[in-house]
Design goal:
The protein is an all-beta fold and about 60 residues long. Helices cover about 0% and strands about 40% of the residues. A four-stranded antiparallel sheet has the order 1-2-3-4, with no helix packed on it. The radius of gyration is 11 Å and the shape is globular.
């Protein structure tokens, strides 16, 4: 996933802002890590450079 995607990505559950946590990176490409919604707290994994933005558990109020 390219870091520049952060400008357009939002939480698919509540449309909140996502924060990026990186565990492995090559140049501007995030290979492993996660995206976390600051509004509802849902985590989305990034594996092999692909963010999985499918809701896993839904929003936590």
């Amino acid at each position: 996933m390219r870091r520049s995607l952060m400008e357009i990505l939002c939480c698919p559950v509540c449309k909140g802002e996502l924060t990026l946590s990186v565990t492995e990176e090559r140049e501007e490409e995030v290979l492993e890590g996660s995206l976390r919604c600051t509004a509802c707290g849902v985590d989305y994994p990034i594996s092999e450079g692909i963010p999985n933005l499918l809701p896993q558990t839904g929003c936590e109020d």
